[in-house]
Amino acid sequence: MSTFWLSRDEVRELDRRAINDVGVPGIVLMENAGRGCAELLMRLNPERKPVAILCGPGNNGGDGFVIARHLDNNGWKIRLHAVMSPAQTVQTAGGQRITPGFHFAGLSPDAYANYMIVSRCGPMPLSLSQRPLAAPENRFLQNDFSDELIKQDCWIVDALFGTGLSRALGSPFDEIVSLVNASPNPVFAVDIPSGLDCDSGEPLGPTVRATHTATFVAHKRGFLNPESLKWTGQIHVVDIGAPRVLVDEYRQRPR
Q: Above 70 in pLDDT, residue 105?
C-alpha cells in the first residue's frame, strides 16, 4: 500500500475543516500534537537526557510549549528558548486586547495561550530572543540565543517552523539552524524540519538536519523525495485527534 501523504495546502485545509466544520478547537489539536510529541520523545530518550526546546513564532512554537509542559510534568529536565518579537497589541480569540509585552508577534491565540501556560508552570528555564516588557518572575530570561543551550549532552527539539514555511529562513533563524546542525546531539523535529519545503522535500535554504521527525496526521508530500531523508531522519506519524471521517477523505483521494 502506498504511503498516505498530505500537501501543504491539504494540511491547511484539513486543519481548517476540523476546526470550522467539525468543531474541534484548534487548541485541542495543538494539545494533542504536543502531547503526542512529548510521549514519543520520552520513548526515544529512555536515558532521560535534558531536552532543549527551540520555539518559533507560529503554531509550531505553540506545539513546542505543549511539549515542554508535558516533559516537565513527567520530570524531564528542559530548557526553552522562544524566538519571537514583542508585539504592541493583539486581539485574542475572544476579542480581548493583550497588554504590550505580554504577547509576541506571530503567535496565534492558541500558541499564545500555551506560552502563557508554560510561563506559569514552575521553574523550567525560559529564554527569549527579546525580553518582554513584563516577564514572569520565575524565569531566567536572556536577550539572545546562546549555543550553550545545545552544547550540553541533550536532545534538541526543533519547533521553529512547520509545513507553512515557503521561503528561506532569515536571521536569527539561519544562525540558530547552523548551531543546531553543528551540535552532536540528536534532533527531534516537530512536524517537519525547519527550512524543509513541505511539498518538494528540498531545503528552502538553511534547514535543520533532524534525527527524528514527528509529523502530524500523515507523511508530507515532500517526504516522497528520497533526498528528504537527509533532513527528516526517521519519520514517526503522530495522531492529533483530527476526525477520522476527514482524514479518510484525504487518504482516499486519487494521487
A: no
Torsion of CA 184, 124, 232, 26, to 10 degrees: -170
| Residue 60 near residue 162 (C-beta atoms within 8 A) | yes
Whether the per-residue pLDDT at 130 is higher than 80: the answer is no
Residues facing residue 55 across a β-bridge: 82, 159
pLDDT tens, 19-55?
999 999 999 999 999 999 999 999 999 999 999 999 9
Nearest in space to 29 (alpha carbons), one of 5, 62, 76: 62
Q: Distance between CA atoms of 44 and 212, rounded to whole angstroms?
A: 9
176 near 53, Cβ under 8 Å? no
What is the residue type of 143? Answer: N
The model's pTM is 0.87
What b/e string do you get for 90-119 counting C-beta neighbours within 10 Å, with b at 16 or more? beeeeeeebeeebbbebbbbbbbbbbbebb
Show the domains of the chain with their CATH numbers: 5-251 (3.40.50.10260)
Closest CA to 29 of 8, 9, 15: 15
Torsion sign across C-alpha atoms 109, 218, 34, 205:
negative
